[in-house]
Amino acid sequence: MASHIHRTHRSGWLRAAVLGANDGVLSISSLMLGVAAALTSSNGILVAGLAGLFGGALSMGAGEYVSVSSQADTERADLDIEQFTLRHEYDAEHAELRDIYVLRGLDYELAAQVSRQLMAHDALGAHARDDIGITEALTAQPFQAAVTSTISFALGGIVPLLADTLAPGGTHIPVIATVSLIFLCALGAFAAHAGGASILRGAVRVLIWGALAMGITGAIGAIFGAIA
Fold first, then answer.
1. What is the pLDDT of residues 2-46, one digit of tens each?
2. Same domain as 77, residue 90
3. Which domain holds residue 111?
4. Is residue 27 part of a domain?
5. 3-state helix, strand, coil in the chain (%, to 5)
6. 218 plus 162 within the same structural domain
7. What is the pTM of this model?
8. 48 CB contacts (<8 Å, ≥6 apart)?
């Protein structure tokens, strides 16, 4: 028997984890590079990084919770509408599901039979999946997304902080940038591997955007440092 590995069930937590870690590394490293480019003291760079870490992690978690909760509210509203319609217009809902299966390639009689059997087993589940597009694997989970994003942001943000702490005097900018970009590459490769995509493409994509964000932030910091 053929065995296949599917990755769709990972999409919820994987998206939140990758987004959080990527944002943590990129946000904190860019912040610290911008502050360092403004000729701030070593203590100032570290304090900025720590403030960004705690503020960013909490903001990331809150943002994910609110965003995914909105998605969950929309899903519940759609399911309530579907449940009401099933109670009051059952035959019309059966015809709607049958027509969906016809459009997907089943002949009319088989589509009608499949629709009747699925609705007899779980009418709401059948319509949620095949009419609305809500599945158990992809359904919104606000608390999971918030916790995952908060923790992953914090873990990602620690990377540039450690790089700054261990950097020899006068090398904060190159050390923070190099270590952060290496970590971003590894993160992009991991995310691509976990999602079954090209590892090289995933790593290069994150590297390019990461370097661009750090470069722009560093340049802005240098400009304001010169003005001040």
1. 444 444 445 556 667 787 888 999 999 999 999 988 877 888 889
2. no
3. 83-132
4. yes
5. 85, 0, 15
6. yes
7. 0.75
8. 31, 32, 35, 40
